[in-house]
Target: DUF1622 domain-containing protein
Amino acid sequence: MVLGGASAFLFAVPRALVAATRKGAYTELRRNLGRAILLGLEVLIVADIIRTILVDLTTASVLGLAGIVIIRILLSFSLEVEMDGVWPWARWRVRRVDPPA
Model:
């Protein structure tokens, strides 16, 4: 997550310094930061699943894992809505492709 966030800032800074592309740079920075956070959440979910399976497979650890996964899924959905402005399952309504001329 840290590397993704740092690279998002590094790519956005040159665009933010130019007045003509400043607004686009902010939008791109938000989108890239969101993607980095989403990727980090996915990696953390996988790491928690592997840790639970390999280290301590008890009922308490599985229930704790389920709670963590649910919270991270809700965070992922809220980040998706923040980045795209629509729920992930409603994207097809927003993205319209114009027929070729």
Observations:
- The two ends are 42 Å apart (CA to CA).
